[in-house]
């Protein structure tokens, strides 16, 4: 192509201009880096990387007022499995249902399960969640047994749903009960398939899709603190009872040693078929599993509560027995709660075993206040009801059963049912303020004369008898604070209930009529709670527990 003189001049001018810009940049660059405004370059690069490339450091949403010493200010998600324990020889087996799988399992896969090298997912329908396969625990269930069992109506309906399971689920009002009825048949078949697909592990941990596992604690407990050898035939969890039969509560999670699972499946091939038939007459699959283990293996659940726990941060009964104990599992965790606890584990400022008290400081302490309207903090240990027979009849059964005998009530307790204000006085009156005032005044003879008060204080410093009296008084007060039995209250429909632990609870709907009488009011005796925490001191050693027989 022939260039015109004008085109050649324009190109020459452009080349000269480009060279001039490059020369100016080289000349200015050293002075820019050393100038007072050099920070601007780093700021620019930081902003540019945020907008133009992957960023793994974010503001930690758990870092709020009062949490400065508990979690880091920033959440670095670049390597979430860096501190995850070695789970070699330990397999997670998670049970879900087609009606809930896509609501619950994805968050599990995004948090703790992303760090597990292997696990199994079972449901009542074969499904695929991203790259993860969900196995049908009931696929090998005898067809003849399914055909004449109405509990399997949902199983058949799920397979016939022409759209997403959620669309079909939303159209059925009785979905929850049907899913519960079907769930009990999964337990024993799931054991058989687990051993067939993943034999030879030391420990098998079985959980629900709404169970959270604290893996660092779990691995440490199984290998160091449980006192159990996986070659023993053992069955561990949180013990519950139905009809006098003990069993490990499925939602809290339970552990079966490889030795026990191997023996159950390989030495008793008829156990699954027998309990498939039996399922129609039993309420729960976790109960049937316990029955099978006792019938065929003569093995009973070994109590490992509160390490295996059926509560979550907002419902845990913080206090005696739920403080210095490490926690292995929690139940009824929704997707948001699973994500928040995972984030807490990722941003904690300490690597010591996570104890129940740590969950209090992270999820409850920042939200503590004297009272909340339209709230149920789950107080239910001791109740005070209107003595009128009709009012007694209207009350819940457990409220009537947990009434304090009138002959044992104080005047304050006798009036507690009349209003939430009266109810609040029950905890306040347990340890009178006058006792603490007396502690501070011990040994003073004349409060109105500063000189005499000063002389008295000086005498206290030198008098062994006074010091001994003060120490004895303090010890007595500390003992009373430690043994406090009233930490919070809730009031509703002329029923006042108090609690021997402190919990957060959950909101309640506002009543449509007679708001003053039917409202839910909850309150916390913050001074009593903080006194108890102070007396307990730091948990210098986690209270690991060995399974009870």
From TrEMBL:
Residue spans crossing the bilayer: 12-29
Primary location recorded for the protein, binned into one broad class: membrane
Biased composition (Polar residues): 454-466
Region (Disordered): 387-413, 440-481
Sorted UniProt keywords: Membrane, Signal-anchor, Transmembrane, Transmembrane helix
Keyword Manganese in annotation: no
Compartments where located: Membrane
Presence of the UniProt keyword Membrane in the record: yes
Any GO CC annotation of this UniProt entry: membrane
Bilayer disposition of the protein: Single-pass type II membrane protein
Taxonomy, superkingdom: Eukaryota
Compositional bias annotation for Basic and acidic residues: 391-413, 467-481
Family note: Belongs to the glycosyltransferase 31 family. Beta3-Gal-T subfamily.
Designated name of the protein: Glycosyltransferase family 31 protein
Biological source species: Monosporascus ibericus
């Amino acid at each position: 192509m022939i260039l015109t003189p004008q085109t050649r001049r324009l190109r020459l001018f452009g080349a000269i201009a480009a060279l001039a810009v490059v020369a100016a940049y080289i000349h200015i660059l050293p002075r820019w880096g050393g100038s007072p405004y050099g920070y601007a370059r780093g700021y620019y690069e930081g902003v540019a990387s945020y907008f133009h490339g992957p960023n793994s450091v974010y503001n930690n949403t758990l870092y709020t007022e009062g949490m400065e010493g508990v979690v880091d200010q920033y959440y670095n998600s670049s390597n979430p499995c860096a501190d995850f324990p070695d789970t070699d020889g330990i397999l997670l087996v998670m049970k879900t249902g087609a009606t809930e799988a896509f609501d619950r399992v994805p968050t599990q896969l995004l948090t703790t399960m992303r760090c597990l090298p292997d696990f199994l997912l079972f449901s009542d329908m074969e499904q695929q969640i991203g790259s993860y396969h969900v196995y049908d625990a009931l696929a090998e269930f005898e067809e003849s047994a399914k055909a004449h069992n109405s509990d399997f109506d949902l199983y058949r309906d799920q397979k016939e749903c022409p759209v997403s399971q959620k669309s079909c689920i939303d159209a059925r009002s009785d979905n929850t009960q049907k899913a519960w009825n079907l769930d009990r048949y999964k337990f024993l078949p799931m054991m058989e398939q687990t051993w067939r697909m993943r034999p030879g592990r030391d420990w098998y941990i079985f959980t629900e899709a709404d169970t959270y596992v604290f893996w660092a604690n779990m691995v440490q407990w199984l290998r160091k603190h449980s006192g159990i050898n996986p070659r023993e035939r053992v069955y561990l969890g949180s013990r519950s009872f139905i009809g006098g039969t003990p069993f490990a509560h499925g939602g809290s999670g339970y552990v079966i040693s490889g030795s026990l699972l191997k023996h159950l499946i390989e030495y008793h091939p008829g156990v699954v078929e027998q309990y498939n038939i039996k399922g129609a007459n039993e309420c729960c699959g976790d109960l049937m599993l316990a029955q099978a283990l006792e019938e065929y293996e003569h093995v009973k659940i070994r109590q490992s509560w509160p390490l295996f726990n059926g509560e979550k941060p907002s419902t845990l009964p913080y206090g005696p027995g739920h403080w210095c104990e490490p926690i292995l599992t929690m139940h009824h965790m929704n997707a948001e709660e699973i994500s928040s606890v995972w984030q807490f584990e990722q941003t904690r400022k300490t690597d010591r075993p996570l104890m129940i008290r740590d969950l209090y400081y992270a999820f409850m302490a920042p939200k503590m206040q004297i009272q909340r309207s339209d709230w149920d903090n789950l107080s239910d240990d001791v109740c005070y009801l209107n003595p009128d027979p009709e009012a007694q009849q209207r009350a819940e059964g457990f409220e009537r059963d947990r009434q304090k005998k009138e002959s044992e009530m104080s005047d304050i307790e006798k009036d507690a049912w009349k209003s939430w204000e009266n109810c609040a006085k029950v905890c306040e009156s347990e340890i009178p303020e006058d006792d603490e005032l007396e502690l501070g005044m011990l040994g003073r003879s004349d409060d109105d004369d500063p000189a005499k008060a000063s002389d008295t204080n000086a005498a206290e410093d030198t008098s062994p008898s006074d010091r001994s009296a003060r120490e004895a008084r303090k010890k007595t007060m500390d003992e009373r604070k430690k043994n406090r039995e009233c930490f919070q209250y809730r009031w509703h429909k002329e029923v006042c209930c108090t609690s021997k632990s402190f919990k957060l609870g959950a909101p309640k709907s506002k009543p449509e009529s007679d708001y003053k009488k039917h409202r839910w009011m909850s309150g916390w005796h913050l001074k009593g709670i903080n006194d108890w925490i102070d007396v307990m001191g730091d948990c210098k050693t986690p209270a690991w527990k060995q399974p009870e027989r």
